[in-house]
Amino acid sequence: MFGKLIKDRNLRESIASASVVGLNLVSATFVGLLIGWWLDRWLGTKPWLLLVFLILGIAAGFKNVIVEVRKIQKADAEEHEDHGDTDAKP
Q: Which pLDDT tens digit goes with each residue over 43-60?
């Protein structure tokens, strides 16, 4: 659907990458929360493992966000170099 609306391939790829950023943060946090909850139920350590894995999930989510943003910035810088723009900063 959007492939027909947005003709520029690079723009479509950038939008897709940007949409993944939020999904990475939420999914990693949710997975950490579920693992901590399950381990707490299994080992009876309520709420400590839930908190530990929630924090680890949030940290993993932010790491994934940083990796995706760097990919987007690198692709943007390469696009500016291809077009001969000297204002782009790597």
A: 999 999 999 999 999 999
